[in-house]
Queue: 2 jobs
Job 1
Amino acid sequence: MSCVMSPDNVLYGTPVYRFVYELVGTVLPCWISYVAAGLVIMFILVNAVLMGAAVFVFAERRLIGRFHNRIGPNRWGPFGTFQPFADVLKLIFKEDITPAAADKIVFLAAPIAMLAPAILMLAVVPFAKNTALADLNVGILYILAVTSLSSVAILMAGWSSNNRYAMFGAARGVAVLISYEVPVVLCLLGVVMVAGSMSLADVVEAQAIPFLLVQPLALFVFLAGVSAELNRTPFDVAEAESELVAGYHTEYSGVKFALIQAAEFGGVVTASMVVVTLFLGGWAGPLADYLGWFWFLLKVGAVAFIFIWVRATYPRLRIDQLMAFAWKFLLPLSIINLFATALEVFFLRDSQGVLAINDLWIMTGINLALGAGCIALFGSMIREKIKPVTWQPAAGTASLTVGEVT
Amino acid sequence: MYGMGMVKGLLVTLKNLTKRPFTVQYPEERLKQHPRFRGEEFVWYEERCTGCASCAKFCPLGIIKIVTSPSETAPAQGDKYRLEVFDIEIARCMFCGLCVEACPYDALFMGSGFEQSQYSRKEMVIGIDQLRQADKHPSTFFRPQLESAGYDPHQGQPLHWKDVGRESWRWHLQEKAGMRLEPAPGSGNGDSIEAVDDLNSPDLDGTAADAGAPEQTQ
């Protein structure tokens, strides 16, 4: 009894999957080996997200500490490397409280629904050459669809908690997510147009010049939009601890809180992976056939560092500033980028619709200039219109001026 | 160009990333403490103490409790009172140091430590036994003689009661001020605090000690 995968299977390009499938298929029926291989891949991916989240949490806490001239956690394990595990252990042993008036089922399902997009996103990311779980030909569309799920999860968490702070946080979170979805989708269209494909593997192959240079505006919009969608600090109105106790996870404790945290930090790692794949050339680099995973991890680390850096620097925006940033700044930028890219691709492509490397360099020059100009122009246009009010003395007390002591 | 402020902000945090952290890893590393630090482990030299209770009178919070009884051994030697209770309720102390400033015979010193946390308020009272048994590492607060001698309470040996006064030992011998000069009977060592326990021995009364004193101090 042996099972051989047909080449048109969507998982055919995954060596690990095919290996397990055929190994199990030699002794067991094909449908069992299909399930077993899927479980193996799921195990790898889930653990990749959780370990990535653990490493990222540690790196973030240490790095933010250094940004603030502190040391960060360093008591537990060498250089504090066991800190995330200590955190998780603590959360596991804490009491898992469900509010009496909560919607129990939705309350339980929300953290799981929150973690799911981060794991699902990894299914199409190529870690190295031919190492994506499924090289979907609609990979980018799949990523956009899956990340949109997190807004549902946030709304579930906020609504089921039966807590007004959680509800406020969820409402804000969903508003932010929906607003930032638009520029993110539009800026990815530029990438898709240049690459000529929605498959992530093809996008990586198409980056003879990293799209960091070819699509600088798109990268800027994508980074800003993604960090808003991940509720990272400059955009974290959904869980603003100074306004809404903890936002949508106010009522969560114990393991569920651990899951929510893992989803947030794992989300940053997977978002970094997507940024690397779409804009930094993925696994491309010297000896990419053998060291692709190394270059990939290196670039993911660099992008994650940028996320940490931004978090360590900026204070939280107000909700109106946040919305203005999305609708008045990022959306025009992404539309301009889309329009310019469409024109460039239309005029520069050859008869087969393929862009040569010289065309990419031309696009790089045009888009860099366009990006700098647009950021300056629209930045000055969304400058805050409200001027600080100067105090005017009332009619009867005209002799008084501000600061004068009588 | 608008937005340059954000870039500047990023550069500021990046510059801070390359600096050394300010954190002092407390239990392992410590900041250097000034010798004049007013710590809570009060140092008391019973040999110098006359029981005048100046410290208790000057304490603005009234947290020092002193109970004395008449010494029957050697009033002429300045040993007027015998200390029975010397409690400092450290939990309410504000470390103003007025008790130390008030002491006429340099018997009470501020301590040099600060790590005396306890689990209950009752344990936050330093009693006379604790004061007797503690290591004598006096702070140099209001004790310029220690500071000019270069004494650092965090290094070096505990100080002997003869060494901590602002006057010389010879001055004390002449003035008979502030201390028990003669070893009590049954004790070979005049400056040991065990001598106090023998002060009630019946063969010594005030007159005998009074008569004997001038010869001994010459």
Job 2
Amino acid sequence: MIGLRWALIGLGVLGVIAGVVPLVLGLSAPEVNDAELVTVFGPLVGWSFIGTGLFAWYRRPDNRFGALMTAVGFTWCLSGLTVDTTSGVFLIGLLFSSLPFALLFHMLCAFPSGRLEGRFGRAIVALGYFITTVLYWTILLFYDTTRDEWPDNPIQVFEDQSAADALLNLQSVLAIVAILGVPVVLWRQWKRASPAQHAVLAPVYGIAAVLMVMLVASLVADFGVMSNDLESAIDIAGLICLVLVPFAFLAGLARNRLSSAGAIGELVASLSEREGRRRSLRDALADALGDPGLTLAYWLPDREHYVNAEGEQMDLPGPGTGRVTTIVEHAGEPVAAIVYAASLADERELVDAVGAAATLTLENERLDAELRAKVAELRDQRSRSLGAALNERRRLERNLHDGAQQRLVSMALNLRLARARLDDPDKAAELLESAAGELDAAIAELRELARGIHPAVLSDRGLDAALEALALRSPVPVELEERVGERLPEPVELAAYFVVAEALTNVAKYASASRATVRAVRDNGHVIVEVADDGVGGADPSKGSGLRGLADRLCAVDGRLEVEDARGGGTLVRADIPCG
Amino acid sequence: MRVVVADDSVLLREGIVRLLTESGFDVVAQAGDAEDLLRKVSAHRPDVAVVDIRMPPTNTDDGLRAALEIRARHPETSVLVLSQYVEETYALELVGDGAGGVGYLLKDRVADVERFVDSVKRVAEGGSALDPEVVSQLLGRARRNDPLGALTPREGEVLELMAEGRSNHAIAEQMVVTERAVEKHVTSIFGKLDLAPAPADHRRVLAVLAYLREG
């Protein structure tokens, strides 16, 4: 910043000198074409652009606008060198005599952000540079400057004046195209701009509009359709407009400051309105910044992402989306992000100030959003665990209906048949035997079903014993590596148990594993259960309904399920269940 | 033989009592919860207590705890535990270091009167009775061990019946072979599994269980 400051002071000194040069030269060479104009407007235009440009550059170092404005001033001063008769000095003036206009177009089109928005804007500016450099310098090779009562053209190599005229006409036509293009670019900018920005743009665009008219008129005059007096009057009017451009810019800047102060004042007033009468913070901010599409995102520190006011997760816009973001911080922590139109990017100071004024209110709303997010999550969890419970009931109903119930029906049938066959003891005995078989099977099925609903050993002895029982029953050898060593709240034990039960069932069914290990540990108010196998891996919880049902079931106890490929092959199922 | 029956379900308790009485047992007392059971066992000193695992006061494994306490306090009283579920953990806990005078059966085995009565008698006499389901689960896991694979199907069958606590005589009856043949199988099994021969029924159950548990 200090380096920039000294560089800008240096440029300022150079600017003063640059303005003095055409003044001195103009005064010392009154016989040259337009000497009066150069004498008067050279320093005036140069200094006003350089001075204002450097000020803007200093205030917003990352905005190219100030640099462009300064460049207009310097090139303008250089173009004033055409009043000198010394061939070298004249040539420099000649080479630069058109360039200020291209820079001016560029500056206008890039106002106020310093960036060119859109392909059309860039094309118009590129055309401007083409006309004032490549095309103009080509013309100079043909151009006899003495025709305009100037000194000899030192780089004229061709004598063909008709070619020079043709090129000059081409230049004029292209210049008119470029000049007409500029208002189109400005109009598009205007439409995109917020009401707050209109206040900034209005003075600059107003003067630019007059300037464009004057330039067109001046070019048309070049075709020789007007009297000399009129042509001079138009030129002078154009130059006056040019001098006014930097001041229009300053005026815009001042209005921006004023409107910022006003916007913040209004915002603070509207935020301190009593509850009920208060409008939403978003609306207040949208008004203050003049961007009706403004949105707010609230930071949730424990989840490390942003949510909207409804508590739904949202991503901040990236580059190229037409929206930009300002993060509002409080005590070094992000509170919220204000997402607004990229066209406001130049008013970052205003956005920062507005954000700072609203920090406390934002912090409040952030807490609201956090609460909403939690509520939404709970609602989701509730519906998932309800869904899991419902599925479980369906499964039980199906098992009872397909299993024990069928067997009991068949048994009843056999008993009745046996009663009817009491005269044939052998046949009756066979039927009774069959009925007893059905009964045994029904009892065994009911037993397994009951174990599936709630294993007795779990409530009797707790998780460790229940996991040992699971390990013993598993057809794949299971090693119980770590135990929790204490009783846990029943819902936690049950959830952990079903994780291991389902995981071991999967190991036996799909993993082609030769062994599995089970760990259950208490860690910092959580119970972590892990089941790892050395099988083929590739388990996907989004596919198998077993693992997905498990994840839903875990929701009921606020737990989380992770399924991943274990190191060295196989699958690792890990459940993390909070337990007070 | 004097028996105490403990089950909180009156229906089932009465059923078991009638069944045992009809089979010649002397049911000296009935209990509806674990404390009642311990009191009545202390008072009557029966040969065997038939105990449901799930009973008041906590309705969890009170019966099992009471059974272990009976074995510790009254070694002369054997205990046969009935359970709604097969939990190897419980069975192994019950067997502990000595398989004598204990039994662990699924409740529905009661329906097979002859075998049930046989089990009660065996346990009352200081033998053991393990539910075939427990044994088959232990075997199922242990089959992964090579020495078991070396057993012939016949020997496998004998091993299972041995683990249940059956005597050579009972095994012979079940398999419809001579006792002599069973003895030969047993010797062969002990040889293949590299176990020291144990003559008493309950000691060889222990040896077999220990072997299976390690598997």
